[in-house]
Amino acid sequence: MMILRCIGMRIWCSHAPGTSGSLARRSHQALCVYARAQNGLGRAAQRAWRPVRVGQAVAFLMGPALLSLGGHVVYCQLDLNNNANLFLEPKKKLHAEPQFNWREFWKLLRPQLWALLAASLLAFGAAILNIQIPLVLGELVNVVSRYTREYTGRYLQDMQKPVMKLLSFYALQGLLTSGYIVLLSRVGERVAARMRKTLFKSLLRQDVAFFDAKKTGMLVNRLTSDVQEFKSSFKQVVAQGLRSVTQIAGCFISLYLISPRLTGLLVVVMPTLVGGGALIGSLLRRLSRHAQEQVAKATGVADEALGNVRTVRAFAMEDREEELYSIEVDKSCQMNEVLGMGIAVFQGLSNVFLNCIVLGTIFTGGSLMAKNKLSAGDLMSFLVAAQTVQRSMASISVLFGQVVRGLSAGARVFEFIMLEPQVFLHGGKKIPFHSLVGQVSFQNVTFSYPTRPGDEVLKNFSLTLPPFKTVAIVGQSGGGKSTVAALLERFYDPNQGAVFLDGVDIRMLDPSWLRGQAIGFISQEPVLFGTTIMENIRFGKPGASDEEVYAAAEQANADGFIRSFPEGYSTVVGERGVTLSGGQKQRVAIARALIKNPRILILDEATSALDAESEQVVQAALDRAATGRTVLVIAHRLSTIMGADLIVVLSQGRVVEAGTHSALLNKGGFYAELIRRQAKELK
Ligand SMILES: Nc1ncnc2c1ncn2[C@@H]1O[C@H](COP(=O)(O)OP(=O)(O)OP(=O)(O)O)[C@@H](O)[C@H]1O
Hints:
The protein is α/β, with parallel strands linked by helices. Helices cover 57% and strands 15% of the residues. The two termini are 55 Å apart. The site of adenosine-5'-triphosphate (ATP) has 13 residues, from helix 12.
């Protein structure tokens, strides 16, 4: 049995634990493959690991084979290393276009159903008035035509009734229209707010691997412009659409009451208009999606440059970033221009078409009048009603563009709302604090990052961290040290092997509990939030009292410098903590990790960015923090690792040496060489 994974258009596979035997040996059996597509293969396939029959393994091994995954055709071929490579049916482009998810949209809309219903009723009321208005206008014209030759005193009297009727209809129609627009605006705002919250919640729950592959700018864009686009389209389309559709329906009834024959003529040409509109609409939708993707790409470039402005400044890369941004913006501008042209041509054509309908109506209506089958008032009523239909249809044609934009923006939002992470945030076992010992062990872990499948960062890696002891991992850059920490935090799951905490596979444990309570993590460049120091420390334990914050800061050697600031713990640290020095930031981060009193502490090169003086202060804080905890130290500097109970040397994802500082020095191997090189650099 194998585990298949779908990364983008490509699916790769690795052997599941205990099934590393060659596939060839099983060639006589029917093979059952568990497959789970990570994205794009449709919701059913994304949901869970599902068994997929591959047919006879012989066919599977002989050459390209077909299997069905989530209802889609997938090609399968073995490479020389017996790895199965699976490709999606090329013609189907399954990953290319996110689809608008009506079921999810319904969930967002459901709470607003009453308001929507009330708005529809008001719009319906306005539509009923639309049936009446042309008829009364016809009445008015008939009165006027009675007095064209001779004006008498009865004129005003005869006019009074239809005029009063019309005025009250107009007033009532205005009232009803405002009413439903207010209601629809409320519905739009609330749906958009819910959409934003749902998307943000979904994004925050995605796997770390998801963020490895996606740009922050693009994600932020979905939260901001895409939701905004969807909201304005929704409001405009529903408000105007409802009005136009009800007006068209109402006017058609009055048209029918006035002249069934003329109305029949209109009905014949209508389907052509609608069919053509739908066809051009789908073309515009594709254009709009590409244009929006390009805007997101440009935002991504700007976001990266502005977010890392210090690096840009330090390398004097302002001009290059400006050029990159301007290339992307120009592309998006061109795409939007093409889209604008498409919409304009569409609108122009529909206007010509609609005007021709009016012309045809006058032509045919005139001939009916000549045959005495229609009065002047009737033709007037018919024209007014036909004009209203024309106006409403024209606004519907404008709405097509908006519908196109709204649906593609919505599809992009739903794409991430629907995405389910592989590692869920909650669910699973929690070890009670008093029985948590803190023994960690990695057993035969093999791992490659999802963005680089096949490139194994850890190979058959085993390591035990005894409780209350400090274990240091050293080794060359890129050797996989930080990856060990990432696996312990369960940012990723191993491809093979497992990580255990107190003998329990961490995949069985509640990830939120594991990261939030059991493990404290301090990295080389801790990121603080742009709020007060107090809130930053409290981030480690929401709801902690002020006293707990002070105690954690004291433990982290941070209390002194914090109190020396004029605003003490209420000092705002600026975005990402830019207003603090490296050492100060690091100590606040230590306090943030310590406040949750974790049983295990991971220090990922926590002092390597500091100068010697700051390092001493921070190291003292770390030494104090390490007491009574299991500590995993990832470090380059000798000073940080010398005191560790066990030092492990990692090279290309494998443990090549392990022992205490003196034992490893005496051994004269990799570690001794590392130390020798470091000592040379210091000289
Ligand atoms: N998120 C990621 N996605 C894909 N590959 C990654 C990712 N993070 C690290 N890698 C790769 O994994 C390998 C090990 O990286 P890791 O950060 O664990 O090394 P390290 O020993 O901690 O290095 P250093 O001492 O330089 O920090 C490297 O080849 C790196 O390029």
